[in-house]
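Input set for joint prediction.
Command: fold jointly, output tokens.
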Amino acid sequence: MHRIATLLLLPLLGGPALARAAEPDVNQIVRAIDERQRNQGDWKALCYMEQREKGKTDVVYELVVYRRDLANQQLFLFTKPKSEAGKGYLRLEKNLWFYDPGVGRWERRTERERIGGTETRRGDLDESKLAEEYDANYLGSEKLGAYQVHKIELKVKPGVDVAFPVVRLWVDQATDNVLKRQELALSGRLMRTAYYPRWKKVHSQSKKGDVWYPEEMRFFDEIEKANSTHIVIQQIDLRSLEANIFTKAWLESKSR
Amino acid sequence: MKMLATDLLVAGRNLLRHTRRNLFLGGAIAAVAALLVLFLGLVAGFRGAMMESATTLMCGHVNVGGFFKITSGTSAPLVTDWPKVMEDVRRLVPELEYATIRGRGYVKAISDSESMDLVISAIQIEKERRFRRVVELTEGRLDDLGQPNTILLSDKQAERLHVKVGDALTLSAPTARGVSNTMDVRVAGVMRSVGVLSSIFAFLPEESLRRLYQLNDRTTGAIHLFLKDPDAAPQVMSRLLADLRKAGYRVMDHDPQPYWMKLMMKVNSEDWTGQKLDVTTWQDEVSFLDTMLKIVSALATILVSVLLFIVVIGIMNTLWIAIRERTREIGTLRAIGMQRTKVAWLFLLEAGLLALGGATAGVLAGWGLSALVNAANLKVNEGLQMLISQDHLSVVIRPGALALYVAGITLLTAVGALLPAVRASRLRPVTAMHHIG
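tokens >
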């Protein structure tokens, strides 16, 4: 009788522990996401950003993104449309600067600035630093369309400044690619949903391995439902960039 | 004295001898004076409405605001430890009538169908004497703004967002540290728009803005000081700036620009962190509107100056004609012993008398016209309302200024008459008496 009772109680007592044991290591998943996108060297890419906003004409921006990840440097140079050509953002350490050749002046902007007034933020075009900025919590395994995914919730670490303090990720179990990302405000309200339908890899000499990047990103504003931004990244070049690219003078020279 | 009375009598009689010509000239002077009164009264009306609107909606007569920078690239319009600053300000400004605190912010307001950017002024409604007196609600109750998570919109904002009292809005803004945050609020009231400011400013309870921005209760946006005499604002501002520095505060140099312009264009680019106070007057906070007012004033001044110039030329011309007509008379007067200065004085007196009469009549006519405009309560169209901060035309006349206008016009006309008068006095008696006019 005791043996039967023990057998009946075993799943109830040991179930949660067994389930936890079956959970994948969420921190390892997050680290893997960062590691796959890490480059270490220089990065140059051609980007197209299509901004859709309610009551406004759709605008497509063409810009060149330069990165020097080890030095935390970034530079965005707008090349199209004509009205935006020559404008740019320069990130030096923790400062983000905006340059408008029309007024010929540099303005310091917040790190969480919407790039060109779109739904895109600087961090969307930077390498992934999830493990550095957030604590992860595994929410479960589920289906996202045809993909079996890990659902993960990230909460910002104390003392770290980020635009969204809570982030939810849907990560493809087969590839560790992020397929969907939801970003929540401090109040808990959903602010932005991002989809990453296509991932590509490119070989990096500096990393001596592959660097993965989302070739396409779609951002949907969840507060103003009609607003969205579609980004396409092309022509990745991981060769070393000139030393003077990440300077104000270089960006100014491009708009002359 | 008796001599002056005689001179005035002579000058008056001479003026009456050429009634039609002098009536035309006096009429022209009167028209210019009336226009001057009306134009300057309108500008004073615009300025008064702008001050009323600005000091009700966005600032005090003098403001102690400031910026807090967590890093050199991240700044927010904040005053930390405001109770201490308030205590010092009360001590340093004896001209103070009362003071309030206001939170400063910028949010995106989203309704079910629309969205718009709003500049937020967060208020403690029970302490806002002037606000309660001036703001006119078309819907809702002002006291409801004392409840948390409420908002007061202008009628134009409510129309654009398609909301009415009781409807919900979502406000979205980054906190002082740049973290996204939102807040759901209920429309507590809709107020009548007055000018461009009420189309961009909306009002939240102070405590609600603190929660949206994650601020503690010793942090606010600015301290608004309302003075017994608003005209003393520039002097109080200069003195307070120096006194706050002496009291150990870090205070920015005076820059006559609104705080949001400094936030966007200046403070973020400066390499400092921590708190700095910024002392401004209401004129500084609406300097972006003041430019328009200066243009209107300049145009009015140019127009009146041109008219005045034409009148002075007219006076000179009339005196030239009078001298030609009265050359023999001048010769006779000189021959019987009248001094040159006396001759010049008589001609000057004639011109002065004409100008005084014309200017007095004109100024009184302008005053009457202004009273008529005010009584007619003329409504202005919406575009103009935005610029002049008033929905009905109002002309503000200071009686003291009227005497100045009369004196100014008389003096200018007399200066214009100086040359012909001197010319008349230089005529040789023999030549003048032989003149055949």
